[in-house]
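Memo to structure team: turn this sequence into structure tokens by end of day. - J.P.
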Amino acid sequence: MSQYVMKGGNPLSGEVLVAGAKNAALGILAGAIMTNDPVTIENVPMVQDIEFLLDAIRDIGGTVECRPGGTVMIDGSTIRKTMVNNDYIQKLRGGYYLVGALLGKYHHAEVDLPGGCNIGSRPIDQHIKGFRAIGADVKIRNGMILAHSSRLVGAHIYLDIVSVGATINIMLAASTAEGKTIIENAAKEPHVVDVANMLNSMGANIKGAGTDTIRIRGVEKLHGSEYSIIPDQIEAGTYMIAAAATRGEVLIRNVIPKHLEAITAKLREIGVKVTEYDDSVLVQCDQRLGYANVKTLPYPGFPTDMQPQVTSLLALSDGVSIITETIFENRFKYVTELRRMGANINVEGNIAIITGVEDLTGAAMNAPDLRAGAALVIAALTADEFSTVDQIHYIERGFERFDEKLQGVGAKILRVDEDDVEEQERFKLQAM
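Reply from structure team:
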């Protein structure tokens, strides 16, 4: 197993390039199999979740070609089965998008129930509700989602809760259903809009993505396309917070500033200088920051995927901050690890009360999930001592070349085998 070894205490400085949005890419790559024409997707983040999904597409017969620079070509004409049952899909939350894609194209899908990070209850009942509304018979049997329909017909669907996954999955299936489908209380996240735009580039007729009402007029079939994925707002936000936490100056490139508004506003509130450009943001900080109250909400609110990172930042702020998590009930598991570094954080239900400390100390930590792992790395980069973070496979599920990009802005971080004591000691000598 690999781990990150770090020595913090120095401000990050320089430029970092943000990859394509992982959460958009999962829906877009699944949607690419819905035509028998080749589809070319650019700005694909080559992270583990994407690799798992591409392996699953290959496993059902799809042709996948990965080209340099994050370009992926998919040919769905070679798909030979609609059962997705392998180790890859069991590790992947976004694998359920293959249900919507296969159901929309073949009217049949059998897909393993999703895996992913254990950050709380993430039921798929709203997905099932949507599939049934447009005419599918859906069952859960032997750990698999089984969906079948002789005919998909548009319907009026009201989601009981705002769900990004259900919104995207229903869009995929309904894009080729007969008639008109309306999704109300739909998720408004940028990656929902990106999946809709990509499907429209393939000939779908989807309107209203980015609002709480999406209207889909089904088409007979989709065609090939070339499409580029939007930048990853969570990766961008993570580097923004890393720059602020280390009191550095970092230009984050390949971003859409509007997608970062909730993060930018909170950083400015506590004293960080954020300058927005057309496709980049400059983050500057040279002082101890103030406290804040943060409440996670669906877009355009403060994203739950940024909650652990902002907690690491506020752990060093002056005053008492309160974090309220409204999306996932298990998202504070990483707090135990931050306490090992000297953070003063108390969790009461879905609320974390943070009393800022002057500095954190080095520690050996374990990443409990993807975003929490990134938060622990941020915390380690502030401590003027050595730290390690294990279970980094979680981090690598969603961050492309995380250690290399941090090295590029001056972080002393190395990905090593946890049993390679010699390499660890060599790094420590060099980092002193």
